[in-house]
Design a protein that fits this description.
The protein has 6 helices and no strands. The protein is mainly α. α5 packs across α6. The model has no long low-confidence stretch (mean pLDDT about 95).
Length: about 100
Amino acid sequence: MERDPRYKTAKILITSGHIKAFREIFDLEVIPKSVVARDLGLNNVRFTQLMFNVEKFTYKDTFLIAALIGIDEQTITSLIIEQYLLDKRSKKKKPK
């Protein structure tokens, strides 16, 4: 099965610094989350849950995403960590 050509676009945007957090890949509609979910062998609902709770990604899933996009594991891990920190800050600001 051939890789979706939009992964190349994601790689270019990530390596050039235009994408700084994990969900930006999907917020900017670079590649549909359904495509990534299918390529990971996850259903769309489960992948969406992981997108909004990035700390629950396994290293295996993280490294597979890196391979699909064509970037190194440390780069995708950095994007996920940045997303985690952004989510953590936004949760603190919400009134209880």
